[in-house]
TrEMBL record:
Keywords: Iron, Metal-binding, Oxidoreductase. Residues 136-247 form the Fe2OG dioxygenase domain. InterPro entries: BesD/HalB-like (IPR056470), Oxoglu/Fe-dep_dioxygenase_dom (IPR005123). Belongs to the iron/ascorbate-dependent oxidoreductase family. SUPFAM superfamilies: Clavaminate synthase-like. Gene3D superfamilies: q2cbj1_9rhob like domain. It holds the Pfam family HalD. This is Fe2OG dioxygenase domain-containing protein.
Length: 281
């Protein structure tokens, strides 16, 4: 399957540790170290572009919509924060997610997500021994749907690294904007975050117009990012492949309810996953 779908001439996923593999990996790692973001262009072969788009468009109506007031840290908006704290800036989250259990197993994005060579490649790109699919039956693989007029507002990710692929481009807008390393494990840098939210981000903000079939690797826990408002008549669809370093990761009940409008018994049993740092989110 992999050889057919992925351009393995360029991205030798099936030749683990070959010279070509190592060449790609070292390039990716250098870019990730510099900006926290790397786009592997034309990762999926062009003949699959329409299938990728259609499979996404078919499930997009299954996205859970909810007008949610959020801030960049995904903490309670009414928290008792200082007046100039960036967590006080509120946004309407206008994107919606299709949960993993609504993505057919034969869809390209599902086959990539669960592919062992793909996982091995992704892990090596991030310098990890291996990655695990989330044990969460809803949030491991999602389709992110941003309809015309909507945006996916500024936020940090809970995951340290994210893998994604646009499956349908909007007519205009829907640009991925990010601020490389604006915070670190040691420092929140609230002043810089505040500047970006207030539109004074200037050189802190980079812009990427992603294209379908490109694979994006991103370290979103330290880089503030958003999808700018989508313009025109076509929704923006992107597949989010979520992996973790530890096995068994399951989302919290409250977050799962917010994102998907439902929880499963496994969420009620698991409680909140433990993380390695104390950053707000
Ligand atoms: O859809 C995208 O390109 C970005 C999605 C994102 O930032 C997220 O799901 O956390
Ligand atoms: Fe994100």
């Amino acid at each position: 399957m992999l050889d057919q779908v992925v351009d393995t001439g360029r991205y030798p996923l099936t030749e683990v540790d070959s010279a070509e593999w190592k060449g790609v990996i070292s390039q990716v790692r250098a870019e990730l170290a510099e900006t926290g973001c790397c786009v592997l262009t034309d990762f999926v072969r062009p003949e699959w572009e329409e299938t990728l788009r259609r499979e996404g468009a078919e499930i997009a109506p299954r996205a859970h919509y909810d007008v949610e007031t959020v801030n960049v840290y995904n903490i309670a908006v009414d928290d008792d924060l200082p007046a100039d704290h960036p967590g006080r800036v509120e946004f309407q989250r206008g994107n919606a997610f299709v949960a993993r259990d609504l993505v057919p197993e034969e869809a390209i994005i599902h086959r990539l997500y669960t592919s062992a060579p793909f996982q091995r490649f992704v892990a090596d790109c991030f310098g990890l021994e291996r990655v695990h699919e989330l044990a969460d039956p809803l949030s491991g693989l999602c389709l992110n749907v941003v309809r015309p007029g909507m945006e996916h507002p500024w936020h940090f990710d809970t995951n340290e690294f994210t893998v994604s692929m646009l499956t349908q481009s909007p007519d205009a807008g829907g640009v991925f904007e990010y601020c490389p390393g604006i915070r670190s494990e040691e420092a929140e840098n609230f002043d810089d975050v505040r500047d970006v939210l207030d539109g004074r981000g200037g050189s802190l903000v980079r812009r990427l117009t992603l294209r379908p079939r490109d694979l994006q690797l991103f370290k979103g826990r330290f880089s503030l990012h958003r999808v700018s408002p989508v313009e025109g008549g076509t929704a923006r669809h992107s597949a989010i492949f979520a992996y973790s370093e530890r096995p068994g990761v399951i989302g919290s009940v409250s977050r799962t309810e917010q994102l998907f409008g439902r929880v499963l018994p496994v969420h009620l049993e698991a409680g909140r996953a433990v993380r390695g740092d104390l950053l707000l989110d």
